[in-house]
Amino acid sequence: MYSSFQEGESVKKLWISILVVLVVFPMMFQSSVKAATPISIIIDGVRLSTDQAPVMVNGRTMVPLRAIFEAFNATIKWNQKAQTVTATKDNTTIMLKIGSKTATINNKAVTLDVPGLNLKGRTMVPTRFVSEALGHEVGWNPKTQVVTITTSASNVGNAGPVSNVAAQDVSDFGDGRDLQVSFTRAANESLVDHYRVLIVKSGNILNLSSAQTIASYNYSTVLPTGTNPSIKLTSASRTVDGDLIKSDQAYVAYVLTVGKGSNASALSSGSSTMTLVNKTVAAISNVQVNDISDYGDGRDLSVSFNKLSDESKISSYRIFVVKATNYSNFNLATANNVSSANYTLVGKTGNNISQILSSGARDVDGALVKTGVSYRVFVMAIDSSNAANHVLSSVSSAITLSNIGVSNLNVSDVNNYNDGRDLKVSFTHATDETYISQYRILVVPTSYYSSFSLAEANNVSSSYYTAVSTTGTTTNQVLTSSTRDVRGALIKNGVNYKVYILSIGSGSNTGGNVLSSPSSVITLLNDSSVSIVSNLSVSDVNDYGDGRDLRVSFTHPTDETYISQYRIMVVPTSYYSSFSLAEANNVSSSNYTSVSTSGSSTSQVLNSSTRDVLGASIKNGTSYRVYVLSIGSGIYWDSNVLSSASSVITLLNDSSVKAITNLSVSDVNDYGDGRDLKVSFSHATDETYINQYRIMVVPTSDYSSFSLSDANNVSSANYTSVSTSGSSTSQVLDSSARDVRGNLIKAGISYKVYVLSVGNGNYAGPNAISGESSAITLSTTKSPVISVTNVTYKEDNGRILISFVKSANESNISEYRVLVVPSKQGFGSADAIEVRSSYYTSVTPNGTNPSIFTATRDVNGDSIVKGVKYKVYVLAVANNSGVQNGGLSNSTEEFEI
């Protein structure tokens, strides 16, 4: 159907497509997928089940590509990068590209009404195109919203129903695994595509029509093999109404024979009614695991659980140790396949069981149980007479065996040095240190605490932990002044920390390091009565361009008994991340500002000679943070305390709005209007208080009198606004651009250009005007368009038929615009150019005198109505070869419909 087309039909379809694009294109920005009545797709009498419902797009039914192709037994290849799908069946190969209206059938291009698209993560394709491309017949019932597809099959006939349908209870899982269905195959199985086993609650009625509409996830499929089938259902099997199969419910089994192609389907008689009975006892419960020794093998692991209350069908139990990283994939089927060497067998005892594993105990992967590995444990009850009745417990909590871990971890603040010497770490060593080489004290900021793990502990640099030997049974370690946290920052007051101990394995435990639980949170504080200031803030208060612009305010500590002074330190933000108490103590006296302890607060404007901590003068344009150092006195002369940083501040000179620079103009096109004029300039260096720029085109006859006052009063219609985005502007004006007098810009007139910088905020004025550009006179080598003539109208059943004689020269015309104007409305060439595209009718020049019906709206967008008088104009619009210097026809006579 899509492989060839006659030439005439192709041309006809091409024009139809063009007209459709003209009409539909403005609507493309709307949602193309409409809400509609649910659509059903029936293939050879069987409803197609999809996880994304079919939808209607521009009059075409779209369906998930995988569902439709698999329904036709076609093979599918998807190219994610190219966004193409290729489907092959028999001798036909189809390729579609998502978003494209062109597809191929056996490498021949065809045009689609609607392209493939992505919808909620599913790739949707047009149903009719796919079906007919594979040689199938498609029907559509708009009233019922049903698509019917009839496949072409070589065999036509009736395979007939199966017989002797029987259902049996074969297990005790309490779900579909207990149910086995058998039947005698159809008489002529060569006509059978497959069978569907349907489970119906007793008392419900099933007929052929309803059987054919059952969703695929509510039946079990059996393929014909030439023998009488017997199928055991699964734990996920459901009845035809979607309920999971379960015990203590009566069911009847049916089998639907589904014929190949057009072969008719047939429904069997129902089986005898049967009710599943679950004969198993309750599952194993309360599986617990404990680390009880320090052998470094299975002897450290104790497993306990509550035995089954009824062990009459149970011969023994099996304990499975599973690596915690793999436990989510461990199930009954996996457990049944574990080698006897990789589980621990426990006999029935009559009591709840507590089992210590052996030194040779292995996990289910065959590896010896050992320290440093996280495990989870399952227990399975064994029915020696029927493996189908084995029962697997829920999983235990995770456990990591350790014989190298520490205990009794404690931290305390013991000094007032404001560094690592204030922190004391105490802990009890592991009971057996045979395979431990050292301990590592790790100090972790609590902001990083939640994500700290063994893997991260193993990767901490040797510069960022404190090593402790295994000598003795306990450690009480005061850290050093140079101790750093695990991120590399020096330990200091005011930061919340937690401490961990990493036990480093050696010998047989090499690589099996163990990380302790964290200590309690500790924040080192200086108890010396030298306290930090509070409420630190900074502000830009002047415009000197030096330290006199910076005000620093803060609240003094309540108790200043042991404080001699405060030092204000201005730190460039490029230096902020590494600024510390130690560095503050070393700042030269010429690079900070001293403040006395007098009063309860300070609000200090710095002086013109103030320098930052690096010795550079404070200036505009540099980002700073400010700190205040409290200086200890008396017995606390060396216990200085550094405040937190202020917010970032960048001093600015706010006193003026600056003008632009590097203004230039050029003639870049030949439209004969503003599109010919390009204006370029560099933005002001500081645009903080500039809202926008305004490009003003001034006829040179006005040059001598144009001033800032004149620029401020120019109407918004007579300049071009430019945002402050970027560092420069290169702007070609538009066709409607006007000079400052309100006249359209055009060729043959000499202009000069100015740019006005417009202030914002507190600087809404004074604005700043640039110098003038060089004079420019726009010229054109293109010819003006010639208007059409003899515009006439004719009324036809409320429509307006317009005829006119084409322009004498159409080479420089892109289109004609037919404009309906209320006769009382003034209308000229400038008005015609500005009419919106949806309010006129466009006609493409083709060498003939057009005769067309107009649209139903006038140039204002109002509907054309009775009782209103109108005139019709035709505007010839210039293309790149012409100049829009006229082109508007005379009007028709006044008329009304």
TrEMBL record:
Residues 43-149 form the Copper amine oxidase-like N-terminal domain. Coiled coil: none annotated. This is Copper amine oxidase-like N-terminal domain-containing protein. It comes from Paenibacillus pseudetheri.
